[in-house]
Amino acid sequence: MKRIDKKADVVIVGGGVNGCSLAYQLAKRNLKVVLCEKSFLCSGSTGRCGAGIRQQWSTRENAELAINSIKIFEKLEKELGQDIGLRQGGYLIIVHDEADMKQANKNVAMQKSLGLDVSILTPDEILNIVPILDIKGMHAVGATFCPTDGHVDPFKTTYAYAHEAISHGAKLYKFTEVQGIKKNNGKIDSVQTSNGKITTDLVINAAGAWSKQIAEMIDVKLPNKPFRKEILVTERVKPVFEAMVISFKDGIYFSQQEEGQILGGIPIPNEKPGYFTVPTFDFLHHMSKTLVRYAPALKYVNVIRQWTGYYDITPDARPIIGEVERVKGFIQCNGFSGHGFMLSPMVTKILTEYIVDGKTPQILNSLNLSRFKGKKITREVSVVG
Amino acid sequence: MGDKIFICRCEDLTQEEIEKAIDEGYTTLEELKCRLRLGMGPCQGRGCLLLARRLICQKTGKSTDEISIPSSRPPIIPVSLGLLASDKDEKNR
Prior knowledge:
- The complex is a heterodimer of chains A (385) and B (93).
- Chain A is α/β, with parallel strands linked by helices and 385 residues long.
- Chain A has helices at residues 17-28, 45-48, 60-80, 98-113, 123-129, 135-138, 154-167, 211-216, 281-294, 340-357, 362-366; strands at residues 10-13, 33-36, 52-53, 91-95, 119-121, 142-146, 150-151, 171-173, 178-184, 187-193, 196-199, 202-205, 225-236, 244-246, 253-256, 261-265, 302-313, 320-323, 330-334.
- Chain A folds into 2 domains: 10-47 and 155-224 and 316-372, FAD/NAD(P)-binding domain; 91-147 and 225-313, D-Amino Acid Oxidase, subunit A, domain 2 (D-Amino Acid Oxidase, Chain A, domain 2, 2-Layer Sandwich).
- Chain A contains 11 helices and 19 strands.
- In chain A, the strands form 4 sheets. Chain A has an 8-stranded mixed β-sheet. In chain A, strands 8-2-1-12-19-18 form a 6-stranded mixed β-sheet.
- Chain B has one domain (6-85): BFD-like [2Fe-2S]-binding domain (Arc Repressor Mutant, subunit A, Orthogonal Bundle), CATH 1.10.10.1100.
- Chain B is 37% helix and 8% strand.
- Classes of the chains: A alpha/beta (385), B mainly alpha (93).
- The A-B interface holds A 39-43, 47, 155, 159, 234-235, 279, 284-285, 288-289, 291-292, 298-307 and B 28, 30-31, 34-35, 40-42, 44, 71, 73-75, 78-82, 84-85, 92-93.
């Protein structure tokens, strides 16, 4: 293997969508970028995710991040010169009871104030969007729907970013593990990898579920916990709906991909944090049972595969973004809690502008690691999977 | 008969397409899977993964034992959602 570069302006740890997007944007701004990925690009959460992109959030901050991210996704194919598999079939969020509806009304009012096209649907209107749903089976009293939510292909997107990053001079090293990070006088000094040492002033920790371990190398404690999440996919059947159907109460999400397969997930009952990778029968049963309750016609469709991936979960289900107070040059881009793919365009744009232009928008303060130090935090409640 | 050689029949992938991806730097089966959906159809790679591995070896000069086979994902054969959803003694197929 080629020996790694001895010096870099910035070392990115992690070859998921966030790492590759940062590599592209920073290299485009003429920084000397080295990215280290311990396995192959997309091997972690990015390549295992449900691939939905959604703007319907309960916190204003997440909604803004997501709305701006989708604006970037809409132009990304042209910018990167490659298909990224964008399909905007909307997100249909099922509302189950009065309390649910109260929260939905609140969310929709906030989202509308940000200019989002989102509405509250009656049960009849739900069936116009996804005809195979069973209103009674879902215990639905209504739904919220945003037509510009949708789906993007994580593999295509990440590989397109990687390709463009390399064209702009970034060095992407796969199968290269970060083994240690050194600091000097409270500043980043160098990164030790399985393929040599790199001297640098900046390290971006975009290692997903392994971010906590990367931060520990330099005595920074992250509150993130890895949770195993499972997904199943069926054989391809005739396309009958385009929206992603989700429920915060049941935790389920599912959609039909462009090629026809139904893909979805649900939390495993009583799952504990940890690095578990074995797929469970509990999930398969619970997911199938809930999915067939939502859409009875699907009971004849065959499941061909189930797999696991991690959510890197923070105490408030919001990501940790920006430079840590204690070590100059150590930048976090993790803790996405299951939403790293859909928020990546905006988050990586904000970090790029911080690193290159020194811009510090309010959101960087609000998503900084320091927020967990004894202050009151607002938890994102619109979470599935 | 055409002269295309199909390696992954579920996802309609030819030898030429796979070799092109290997040339672009996708030199493990996991990466080919992500890039081309190799082995992601109903047969789950039974027919194609070993063939594709040979192509990687031919292109990169590596030996077969250096190229790992992607994780097997359950179920072994396709199973209907109705069957998976059913409880004990319940007929829900």
